[in-house]
Amino acid sequence: MEPLSFQEYICSLDPATLPRILRICSGVYFQGSVYEISGNECCLSTGDLLKVTAVALQKVICEDTETGQTMELPPTFKGTFQPAPAPRGPLLEGNRRRGLTLQQALGRCDGRPQPLLCRALGPRALLLRPVYEVHAAMHLRRDVVKIPSTLEVDVEDVTEEAQHIDFARPLLLSEVLGMEDVLPAQAEILEGPSGPAVFQSSWVLRLRQGQRLLLHGCSGAWRVLASAPGRSRHFLLSSTYQGRLRMRPQQFTGVQELAAALHPGRALRVVVTQDCEGRGLHVPPLSVGDRLEALGLQGHGTRLRCRRHSAEEEEGEELLLPLDMGGSFVEETCSSKKYGLAELLEQQALPCEVRVVSPDPALAQDALGTLPALRLEARLDQPFLVGSFCEEPEEGFEVPPRWMDFSVLLREGPVRPAAPCAPVEELTETFYYRLLAQLPGSAASPPPRPPKPAQAGMGSRGKPPLAPRPSGPAPMGACLAPPVLPQRSTSSLCGQRGLPRDAGTGSDSAEHDYETIDDTIQKTVHKMKAIFPF
């Protein structure tokens, strides 16, 4: 067909014949133009193809044939129209009886407006010029393009000769996540991920424009967010991680931290590691070696109810400790059991501290095995896509589309089976804190701290008790490793007074974890030796 203006073509189009494929011809915009359409830029160049899928009437412009004045009619206009008589000729009686709806009147135009009369609009003849919204697909464009029919370009219909052309639609990786019926598949990256990096792995840098991927499907693994206390290193552990873990006792500075660590239905038993002066008759002093069981909050959340156990009293003595009271405590645990990641999460609430005592045998170098402690923060059930590079299909990786979204174009081609993926990914520090802020309960604070008493007491050795930590959750990595005691004395205390075995070396005789013992801890050890001779 001969080229027509876009307006003429759309006005003469029969919607029943859709979809139709149009080619942009040379016209007013010879080399192409960029339009702002529905808030998006749309570039139409000579030779571009449009696949018209729908046409919707937006409005009708009525022009007075005598004065040239115009008005707009909505598509819901209820007035009727009649053909105007030929020029200074009379309107035939037959035509007077035939009223045309707006849609019928537009159907008679056939792309060329004809004079019509409408009593509701006045006595003079009108020309109707419809304005349609045309929905079309374009090659390599994600969204449906919505173009006004009044756009000043010329087009020609090439439906018959272009039926074999595939209008490729880019997809976001997050969209592919919900299209398991098309996976596995090859894909080409059209635009790499933007924003701060998520992982520190080298494969992330290769996710750039033009890179071809193999997308194998969704990963069935869940993840655990972890950090190395005091080392500014953060990890994402997959449930496929095969290393063996051992629980480490938690340390608490002050009663408020102790209260914040309570979990419903889980007992928390600690040992006092620093003398702390009491407060009158109702709050007795705490001495090194005292064993406490934290039970819950009382007094409108201002006091922690505890039970102090001793060898003389089987049931123990009940105490109410103010939350602003200082002190130093270490969790009481003598277990040396080794856990798998899934087994540990079944028995232990998060967060908790562990140590990797047996590295993952599938890893050439397990970075977690070199760390003295690992804090497990939270379990994440974020969906991941398993992928690999076409040129190196033997190295797999897992991408979280909701954190690292980018556009791809699915391609045809063979896809090899999925390769094993690394069970540990190190996170960038920027993304770690961003992710931490998004976790449920991240804004939650420990119980409110009551006002300090007018005069703070002094410790039993003439030293003031440790000041309580600021309100709010403790910063990640702020929990220090437990104090290290000589192995012999630690195991003896574990049997006699319940001091945690992992408060010492945290390992068996075949595993060494030497740390520096400062003067304060050495004095504490000497005092405990004096109280409990070995």
Structural commentary:
The chain has 534 residues and is an alpha+beta fold. The chain folds into four domains: 4-157, no CATH class; 171-219 and 383-438; 263-324 and 457-480, SH3 type barrels; 487-531, no CATH class. Helices cover 13% and strands 32% of the residues. It has helices at 6-11, 93-97, 102-109, 173-176, 255-260, 341-347, 429-438, 487-496, 519-531, and strands at 4-5, 20-25, 33-37, 40-44, 49-64, 70-73, 82-83, 116-118, 122-137, 145-148, 154-157, 171-172, 185-191, 212-218, 223-228, 233-238, 244-248, 251-253, 268-272, 291-298, 303-309, 317-322, 328-331, 338-339, 352-358, 374-380, 385-389, 392-399, 407-411, 424-427. Strands 1, 2, 5, 6, 7, 8, 9, 10 and 11 form a nine-stranded antiparallel beta sheet that branches. The protein is elongated, with a radius of gyration of 38 Å.
List keywords for this structure.
534 residues, alpha+beta, SH3 type barrels, seven-stranded antiparallel sheet, 9 helices, 30 strands, 13% helix
